[in-house]
Amino acid sequence: MDHQQMKIADAYLVTPIRFGDDRGYFQENFKLSALEAAFGFEFKVKQVNQSMSSAGVVRGIHWADCPPGQRKYVTVQAGAILDFVVDLRTESPTFGQWDYAELSAENGRALLIGNGIGHAFLALENHSVVTYLCSEEYSPATERSLNPLDVSVGINFAALAAERGISELTFSPKDQAAASLSEFIASGLLPASA
To answer: Which domain holds residue 54?
Structure first.
C-alpha cells in the first residue's frame, strides 16, 4: 500500500498494490493491520455505507462532531468521482482549505479522511458506486453539513464538472440548505482540532 498526505493534514490518498494478469487484477482494498501500521492510529470499522450516483451528483460537505468524529476510508467500486476534503478544524494551519483526488474503479485508489475534515464528492460517471468504511456509526445528532456552494470555501464544482463534459449538477435539498462556513464559525460548532 502506497500513500501520500494531501494538502490537508490527516487526509491521505492511498494506492493499493495491484496484481494483474490476463484474467484481470487482484488488490487488497483495505487491510486493517497495514493501515494502522502506516498511519499509527486505530481504525475500527463500525459502519459501512455505499452510495450510487449519476454523473453530476454532488454529495456533501459532511463531517461529524469531534469527539468522537468519524474517520472515513472511501473507495469506488464502479465509475469515478472527484473526492474532496475540507479542513474544518479551526486550530489547523489549513483551516478552510480544501484538496481533492480522482478515485475510480479503474485506478483503485482510496481516500483516508481524518476527524474534523469535511467530505464531499462529485460523481463523474453514471452509476458511480462509492463505499465508505466509517470509524463511528451514523448519528443524526452529531452529523454536520456545510453548504457545498459556499463561495468562502471556494470549490467550483461547476467548473470541475465542465472540464469533464458534465453540464448539470445535482445537489440534495439538505446540502443546498446547509449553513455556510461563516455561520458555522459564528455558531462555535466547528472542531478546534481532531
So the answer is: 2-187
Q: Closest Cα to residue 96, out of 165, 182, 4?
A: 182
Instruction: List the catalytic residues.
Output: 62, 132
Rounded CA-CA distance 191/44 in Å is 21
pLDDT tens profile 128-181: 999 999 999 999 999 999 999 999 999 999 999 999 999 999 999 999 999 999
CB-based contacts of 34, cutoff 8 Å, min separation 6? 1, 28
pTM above 0.90, yes or no: yes
Instruction: Report how many domains make up the chain.
Output: 1
Residue 81 forms part of a structural domain = yes
- Kindly state whether residue 159 falls inside one of the protein's structural domains: yes
> Each residue of 34-51: pLDDT tens digit?
878 888 878 899 999 999
